[in-house]
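INFO worker-7 received task bundle
INFO bundle size: 2
INFO processing item 0
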Amino acid sequence: LPSTPVSLAVALADKLETLSGLFGIGQMPTGDKDPFALRRHALGVLRMILEKGLNVSLAELVTIGYEALQSVAGVKDAREALMAFFEDRLRVMFKEKGYSAQEIDAVLAAHPDRVLQIPARLDAVRTFSQMPQAEALAAANKRIGNILKKSPAETTQVNEALLQIEAENALYRALCDVEPQVQAAYDQGNYTEVLTMLAPMREPVDRFFEDVMVNVDDPALRANRLALLARLHRTMNKVAELSRLAK
């Protein structure tokens, strides 16, 4: 890899220009065919970010590459396809490092913007998976996701006055207690701590699903319960999409 900041910047620019340009004219790899070695270029970008400790946004780098070629005739906006291509390279890279497909899928499903954070997120998911509460929380997370897909929440603002059943009150209180701690640990990059903090949520989550009907006839009650679940879902999935760990 390049050894100085200047050579590193030039190498990144060179690879990103090549990737952006060729994706922009539709010359992306297909199957085993990769005549322009774009997989190698993408891997080089990722290695430079990870091994040189570059705390940069991959999406911003891809946008810079695209913007540099906007004036070139025939080059289209292929940023979405290029980001998916980088994600595929990340899957291969971390699988070779010994992480399971399920662990990688959970982390990448959360679409972390900083590649440099991914190893710590993967280690956190691995630690979480070994906790006795992990299986139940992952299953609950999947159930919540399915509910929200069918009936999307319009807000995550919960009206305490509409919490009628003790189980939903208990879940709300537990969530209010854990949210600031989770956010503080997340902001500091302590991803293992974030997922460990979710362990006590298992009991109130289980009780909620045992005692509370979400899709009730009353639209205000239904919306409030969906808001509570959406807020819980957001808190649970900060580090990785835990539903991907459900069996």
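INFO item 0 finished
INFO processing item 1
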Amino acid sequence: MNVPSPPEWPVPRVGITGVGVSLPDRTLATADLQDRIAAASDVVLPPGLFATMTGIRQRRVAADDEYASTFAVRAAQRALAAAGHTPDDVDLLLFASASRDLVEPATAHIVQAELGGSAHAVDVSNACNSFINGIDLARSMIVAGRARRALVVTGETPTRVMRPRLESMAQARSSFAGYTFGDGGAAVLVEPVRRGGIVDVDTETRSGHWSVGGIFGGGSRHPRGDEHTYFHGDGHALRSVFERIGTDILDRVRQRTGWDWVDYERVLVHQVSVPYLERFIEVTGVPKEKLEVTVDELGNLASATLGVQLARVDAGLRSGDRVLAIGLGGGVSVMTMVWEKP
């Protein structure tokens, strides 16, 4: 790849110029999901438990021949079309997702092989913050003069890590967060802009809590065995950590920018379940009308959540409108990004 010259100072503005989304056609009602799990399990699940506890009515589920890369490619094609570009116009491709097709090679190569082009292709992984991390990395590479135009994509298929049967109530509790998941993908084109763009980014990481939840199989700790391929975690512990550190980062953004909720046209936030979202509103004070609620009909889309929300609100934004994105990811990390529409 020909490396571009470093940018002339002042550093150029970098923003999002195209957004795309892709969702599976198949819909799975939460009631049907519980019936399926209950029929295969050794424990009795109270009727309506999944729907009551999560507030999720349904979610989209990938077909057997659809993968994380499938949704990334479809979303990428739409983002490129929205911005009036082709894959050959991109010199950095980041597959930024919690899901992936394979352990090796990077799923970014699978995406590019189907999409076309010859950009530098790399995977970025940080649980449900992967996509927003990818956007920040793309912005940084452009500012540093290492890329001219970046395509950041995510494809999430977390429904495949739901435990298919339960042997005890203790196992049900540790697996319950996995039953919030839904599948889908999103993509954004990131490049220099004349006005607006990404104007503020912040992160807060508390890695001491990495073991609270996750999928622990496939790596060197647990290379084989179905037990480690299912999501498990302590949902209450995760929420407690996010509540302790989430308000601090929002206070910093407010102090640094001078902007409060009223100054944002929309607020996008990672959504795990309806009760989690309601607690977020209570703790932060964000006006509910500023939010784009997706969790009730799409479930927890992992890192695709913010991208799907951005695609939904983008058409209604005018030049100069600000969006605050708030990412929450296992590990654990909280991330914020302020974007102003060019």
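INFO item 1 finished
INFO post-check item 1: The first strand starts at residue 14 and ends at 22.
INFO post-check item 1: DSSP finds ten helices and 13 strands in the chain.
INFO worker-7 idle
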